[in-house]
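Annex B, item 7. Sequence and structure tokens for protein A, then protein B.
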Amino acid sequence: MARIVVVGAGMGGLAVAARLAAQRHDVTVVERSDTVGGKLGWFTRDGFSFDTGPSLLTLPAVYRDLFLKTGAALDRSVELVEVDPVCHYRFPDGTEVDLPNASRGRVVRALDEALGTGSGAQWAALMDRAGAMWEITRGPFLESPLDGARTLVGLSRRVGDLRTVAPWRTLRGLGRSYLRDPRLVMLLDRYATYTGSDPRRAPAALATVPYLEQTFGAWYVRGGLHQLGEALHQRVVETGAQVLTSSTVTEVLVEGDRVSGVLLAGGRRIEADVVVSDADAAHLYGDLVRSPAADRARTSLAGATPSLSGFVLLLALRGRTPGLAHHTVLFPQDYDDEFDSVFGTGPHSRAPRPAPDPTVYVSAPDDPALRPDDDHESLFVLVNAPRHSVDDAAAGIDWDAPGLASSYADRVLDVMASRGLDVRDRVVWRELRTPADLARATSSVGGSIYGSSSNGVRSAFLRPANRSPVEGLFLVGGSAHPGGGLPLVGLSAAIVAEQIGRA
């Protein structure tokens, strides 16, 4: 039995703590906030409540496995509700489509009816390719520790598999080879943002994201997604782990080349044989670990592009919006301009800026737990945004600049109105969350949501490995392998728990 400290009580930290405690290790979770769940946040005011992070769960098998291997089944702790349709999309030309949940045939019919005969067949052919990609990559790339570029070398020995995954190809490039309708390409491009990336640079393998969503379904947790975090916290306690909130780790202690514990603000030391970090990898290697053994990891991180961030409006509204879906996406006229704005790229290599005409994502679960009564509703509104940066204009913008957040919120509301969702005269109050707020809350680089982006062929190999160069130090969560989002974070916890179990 090992003494293990988990730094951070996000979903990755809680998941690995539950698995390790179930293996009879002595586990202590240390969280600087007074709440758990990390980015799976929750905000409530005047009877209006909001999930401030993920709004749906895909690949629920990851969490079913976690709960079964640490105690009672997931369904004993939370109620999963199928989200159908998964999303309502509105394209720049005014075309609208509802994408059904977990039904290939219904998706094909919906696309044919909205975009024209043959559209569904194009999308289905792409999903067939994505399914083949998933079968090839799930084992070596997502369910196992990443063995550096050797993982790709192993794939290259199987020429057919290499051709299917096409690691040299971008998501946009793959889409255009299958999809003749630019609206379908736009639909596919959106899935790059699930990893905080640019579809023109992100790998084609991200086509597996819509494949998973449409094959295994999209689910909501009754009462809000934060209930999943609460249930996991309870499971951690039930397995015997200790959770310390309002406790900030200031240093991961290293003796020689091996961890020996952590140091908390105020001077308390917690001795440990193993430390698992659920903190952002850049924060871990930049601020918490001072060992020269971590220099290689710091160098690798410096070569990666941090993911995009997000600008959020929490809207408390009078009245109800007729026919409003659980998820709504309102696309812009020029999607490329949005990515150029957020990442500071494009033909003129301009600095990052808030996208003047952004894609608007709206989450509005029909859940009485989120509203004071049936005459009001709560809307979570998100747009992709450049990271927060005070001193480096090439890295982001200063979201704390006076008036910027409020004026951009007004702009987003105007954009929503121009696309048929005008709520401006119904706002009771609004709460804004900027990339600067996210950076302060998570110690991520400028508020990057997913750690490193997937921009570039080598992006997967620049993402920090689960086993660090410092002996006894492991990484879990969205900024480490295999990536961000609830399913991948859960997979990272399974990988780390297995690595420690074998040690």
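Protein B:
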Amino acid sequence: MFFSTIFVASVAALAAASPVKRGFGGRATFYATGLGACGETNVDSDHIVALNTPQFGSGYPGPECFKQIQISANGKTATATIMDQCPGCGYGDLDMSPSLFNQFASPDDGVFQMTWDYVN
């Protein structure tokens, strides 16, 4: 009984410490960075994303600005920061800086499917 109580408590603690809040998925594209909707200027080598408008929210800076996300696609994973808004993206979609996009696919591909989660 004592072992099972410790095991259950350990599993619960691990679940509570998980870095993922929830999961999303969609299309990934890339864009030329610069002054973003979060009010900061970035360069193409930064690992940043423009979040789709439905999830970005309203206000300045948007409520999702500066949050870290973890992206997975094509057997690879990378972390990025939300620094801009993508008005042309659908719910779950991300527009990536060129260097981040290149972590997953060739620019010649132009688009790929991915999943992403917020990181605590």
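Comment on protein B: The chain has one domain: 21-119.
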